[in-house]
Structure formats: structure tokens, C-alpha cells
Write a structure and sequence with these properties.
The chain is of the alpha/beta class and 518 residues long. It folds into two domains: 4-356 and 358-383, no CATH class; 434-518, no CATH class. It contains 19 helices and twelve strands. It has helices at residues 16-19, 34-40, 42-45, 51-59, 68-76, 84-101, 103-110, 136-147, 168-172, 176-195, 214-218, 263-270, 346-349, 352-366, 371-376, 394-407, 422-434, 439-453, 468-475; strands at 4-5, 11-12, 128-135, 201-208, 227-229, 242-248, 289-293, 299-302, 309-313, 330-335, 379-383, 411-415. The strands form three sheets. It has an eight-stranded mixed sheet with strand order 3-4-7-10-6-11-12-5, sandwiched between helices. It has a two-stranded antiparallel ribbon with strand order 1-2. α6 (84-101) crosses α10 and α18 (439-453) packs across α19 (468-475). The chain is elongated, with a radius of gyration of 25 Å. It starts with a strand and ends in a 43-residue tail after the last helix.
């Protein structure tokens, strides 16, 4: 099984016509491998009645398959059925097979020239994007083939940046989180069997070429827009009408098909249609983000990371839908810098190279792809982006995301999750908005904060224990609207207005609650 790849990375299907050197449009598909496609018909001709028979069919086209994880998943989440394996084999697997084998016809009808790979064309003008509208029933066929492990990327350097495309590890793993993710995908197919057809599209946009230089950021006259605070520990899924940030891996989907079970992986598991983006989206570059509309939530969940669990059915009753049935649910995938195993101090993260990279990554994620996108999703739900394992500074990331959202005309609703400084963030943002602060003034201020970190308190540095929010409040210069900007300085000529001091809360041990400036 498998296919070849031309020297320029265009997929060449493994059939006789392609072997002669003719390039075929779009990504490789299992139905283009005649031998593999014939084997897959066995699922319909001789439906497996046991897990061993299912594993035997898989062994015809993949090495050493295992369904031990599938058996563990079904026993852990029987959902009231006395024989969950029998129910899966007789009811759910036929839905998976039916949709998998419908791939050829559905793709031919929707994409006569093949499903394209969403890659940036670096020869295009500033501010371009690549868009793919996939009918949701094509999504179902693609996901069904991934479940059956019938994908195999070409062994080529051009495909090293592609995400995983097989459920092999989930079908094998007996770990709690992996069983939970697998159960969520199985539940998607259970619901698909109930509905028979899903209306609408999943729309994927790869956004690139919107980056700004440091000077453009520091001189931006765009006003900082009001920010709103979500309740502590609340999740994005509870907020219809907002675009939801996806704290993504540079390879979209992260470890959803392996051993990952944090923010991105959970979102992809409860909304399994998102997994199909892993077939068409290569690794994101530094200035790229991926925006997806139309992936519905089918499962509820509990726990997080290793304690993740499937928590039953989820019925979407709050999100609006387009006339064609597309769920108006938006996620904005953006990968953060990884500061593990390196200096992750605030001073380091405030450095121009790092801060500029995060600003432009967030800008690509937050920039509306069209007027309808802005109208449907005027605000963004986000939180502590890259602040867990990647060691990002949460208050700084809040400021950078606020600046990026304001730059493209969107407001933020900030989800602090377990962090307690949300009210302080709101006080600061309200103060700056009321005084008419701009994106440029905030970015300029962050640069000055970094400079002051080099100084002792006696020479203009900050007192020990000062939080970033306090440092911004003490440092920012806000100028009247219309004030002239110096040609090369990035600041206005007139003196700054006086900012109100924000008082930080105290924790039980008397320390300021927030990230400390060293």
C-alpha cells in the first residue's frame, strides 16, 4: 500500500496512469489504491462478527494491527448495552464502513480534481489565504477511512510536515485518556447512524501574509477594544457566537490520534470532524494560522489530560446554523512558542523576536477571513495560550492577544481557567480603554517594560514583586487622539496622560498574585 510523490511534492497516485508520470490533483486517497480499495470491500462482503475478525481484516493492509484499545474503550463505556462489543460490530461499525466506502463517489462529486492540500503560496501578495469547503458527508467518509487505518502518506520529505492520519494508536492503547478520545469518535459515528446525513460544510482557511513589522505594531493607532472576563474554570465550548482559540501544535491536531489530551486534543475529540483537517493541513509556518468553521460538538467530557473521560452525548442547541446547515462554530488554531528547556523568563519573552512572533501568529489567527466571519464571530474566546507545558508567561500572552485582536477589530473574552488574576486584568484593560490607549502604545509600553527590567529600582527599575500588569500601568504613555507621531520613534510628541494605578490582589501568604518580575 502507499503512493509515490513527484520531486516538487505533488502527489502521484499509485495507479497505472499515475505510474506513467501523470500528476493527479489533490491529496492521496485510499480509493486510488485499487488493491487496498478491494481489501476494504471485505468489511461489507464479510462483516466481522468478532474483534478478532476485525483485526484479521486490518492485517491484510496494515502491519501488526491491534484492537486492544478498542475493546478496553467499549468495556469502559458500555453506555448501558449488555454486550458493547456486539453492539459496536453490528450497529456502529457498519456505519463506519458505509461512510468509508462512499469516499470515492462523494469526493468525485464534490472535488472532481481532487481534494487540495492547503499550503501557502509564498509568491502571492500580502494578506492571502487558502480556503477549502468540504461537505460534511465527505468529512464523514474521510474520518471513517482514518478510523479504519487505511491512510498511508507518501514516504517523501514533502510529507514530513503532515499530521498523523491513522487511528492505529488509539485502537491499540488502553490508557484512560486515549480510550476517552476513541469513545468520543465512536459516538460521532453512532450519531451519524442516527441522523444518516449531516448538512452543511466544514470550511478550512489557512491564513498567512498578514504579519506586521515591529515598527507597524508600535505605531498602530488602532484603539484597544474592551475585554471581557469569563468565569474561572469555564470552557470555551459554553460560549456560542464567539470564535474559539485553539492552542494548537504547529502540526494541527497535536496528539489527538496519539497520547495527547489537553486543550487542542480534547476539542478535536469532542468535535471529531476537526480531525479531518489533519489530512489537508501541513505543519504551520511561523506566520500562519488555521481557521475552521463548521465542526460540531457531539460528546461531553470530564477531566483533563490523563484524567480525561467521555461524559456522554452532547446535543448542540445553542449554536446557530447557516441556511445550508453549516454549524456556525469557529476555531482559530495557533501554535505558541515553546520555552521548555530554555530561558523562559519574562524578560526573555518580552524580547522583540519572541513577542513579535507571537503577535503575528495571533494576528493570523484572529484576522477575519471575510466580512461574514467578522459578522458571525465579532469576539474571540481565548485564554492562557502556550502557558502550560510550553512555559509561556500568561499575563504577557494576555496582552499580546489583546493587542492582536484589537488590531483586527475583534474583542476578547478572556478565560483565565485556574489563574486568579482575571479581575486585575479586567481593571487594567478597562482603565486603558477608557483613556483611549492604542495598540501601538501598548506594544511600545511592553518594550519599555523590558528595558526597565534591566535596571535597579534606584535607576528606574521596578520594585521587587511588581506584576506585569502593574508594570504596564506604571509605564504606559497614552497620548491624545490625533497627536503627531515622531518619524522614527514610534511615540507621539506630546506628553503622556497620567494612568490610574491598578492595585494587585494579595494571596493568603501576602505575595502579589500574578507573575513576578525578577
Amino acid at each position: 500500500m502507499g503512493c509515490g510523490c513527484s520531486s516538487d511534492g505533488t502527489v502521484v497516485y499509485p495507479d497505472s496512469e499515475s505510474s506513467a508520470g501523470k500528476k493527479a490533483g489533490g491529496i492521496w486517497l485510499p480509493c486510488k489504491d485499487e488493491k487496498l480499495w478491494e481489501i476494504l470491500q471485505e468489511y461489507k462482503k464479510s462483516p466481522p462478527t468478532s474483534m478478532k475478525e476485525l483485526q484479521d481484516i486490518m492485517s491484510y493492509y496494515m502491519p501488526r494491527p491491534s484492537v486492544s484499545g478498542l475493546r478496553k474503550t467499549l468495556s469502559r463505556y458500555p453506555e448501558g448495552d449488555p454486550d458493547p462489543e456486539k453492539f459496536f460490530l453490528s450497529k456502529t461499525l457498519p456505519v463506519i464502513v458505509e461512510n468509508a466506502l462512499a469516499l470515492k463517489e462523494r469526493v468525485a462529486a464534490a472535488f472532481p480534481e481532487g481534494i487540495p492540500l492547503l499550503q501557502a503560496d509564498r509568491q502571492t501578495k500580502q494578506g492571502d489565504r487558502k480556503t477549502l469547503r468540504i461537505p460534511r458527508m465527505v468529512v464523514a467518509s474521510l474520518l471513517a477511512n482514518m478510523f479504519l487505518c487505511s491512510w498511508d502518506w507518501p514516504n517523501s520529505n514533502k510529507y514530513r510536515g503532515m499530521p498523523k492520519n491513522s487511528f492505529e494508536e488509539l485502537l491499540r492503547s488502553t490508557k484512560q485518556a486515549e480510550c476517552a478520545k476513541l469513545r468520543m469518535v465512536i459516538h460521532y459515528f453512532e450519531r451519524l447512524g442516527e441522523h444518516k446525513e449531516l448538512r452543511g460544510f466544514m470550511i478550512i482557511d489557512r491564513v498567512f501574509g498578514v504579519s506586521l513589522e515591529q515598527k507597524a505594531w508600535s505605531t498602530s493607532n488602532k484603539p484597544l477594544l474592551p475585554m471581557f472576563l469569563a468565569e474561572q474554570h469555564a470552557g470555551f465550548e459554553e460560549t456560542p457566537g464567539l470564535a474559539h482559540a485553539d492552542f494548537a501544535n504547529m502540526i494541527i491536531g497535536g496528539g489527538v490520534l496519539a497520547n495527547g489530551s489537553i486543550q487542542e486534543e480534547i476539542r478535536f475529540a469532542i468535535c471529531p470532524e476537526l480531525i479531518v483537517s489533519m489530512l489537508v493541513c501541513p505543519r504551520m509556518d511561523e506566520d500562519e494560522a488555521i481557521q475552521i468553521v463548521g465542526a460540531e460538538q457531539f460528546s461531553a467530557y470530564g477531566g483533563y489530560s490523563h484524567s480525561l473521560k467521555f461524559d456522554g452525548d452532547y446535543r448542540d442547541t445553542t449554536y446557530p446554523r447557516a441556511e445550508d446547515g453549516t454549524p456556525l462554530i469557529s476555531i482559530l488554531a495557533m501554535d505558541a512558542l515553546d520555552f521548555r528547556y530554555k530561558d523562559h523568563s519574562l524578560k526573555k519573552q518580552l524580547g522583540t523576536t519572541f513577542a513579535l512572533r507571537e503577535l503575528n501568529k495571533a494576528l493570523a489567527a484572529f484576522t477575519p477571513v471575510d466580512e461574514a466571519s467578522l459578522a458571525n464571530f465579532p469576539s474571540i474566546a481565548t485564554g492562557n495560550w502556550g502557558c502550560g507545558a510550553f512555559k509561556g508567561d500568561a499575563p504577557l500572552k494576555a496582552m499580546l492577544q489583546w493587542a492582536a485582536a484589537s488590531q483586527c477589530g475583534r474583542q476578547l473574552r478572556y478565560f483565565p481557567f485556574e489563574l486568579t488574576w482575571g479581575p486585575i486584568l479586567m481593571d487594567l484593560s478597562k482603565n486603558l480603554v477608557e483613556k483611549g490607549a492604542t495598540v501601538g502604545e501598548l506594544i511600545t509600553c511592553l518594550g519599555k517594560v523590558r528595558e526597565r527590567l534591566e535596571l535597579s529600582p534606584a535607576r528606574g527599575g521596578f520594585k521587587n514583586g511588581t506584576t506585569l500588569f502593574q508594570a504596564i500601568d506604571q509605564t504606559i504613555e497614552i497620548f491624545p487622539q490625533g497627536a503627531k507621531v515622531k518619524p522614527d520613534a514610534g511615540v507621539t510628541e506630546k506628553p503622556a496622560t497620567t494612568a490610574t494605578t491598578v492595585v494587585a490582589s494579595k494571596t493568603g501568604d501576602g505575595q502579589v498574585d500574578g507573575i513576578m518580575i525578577p
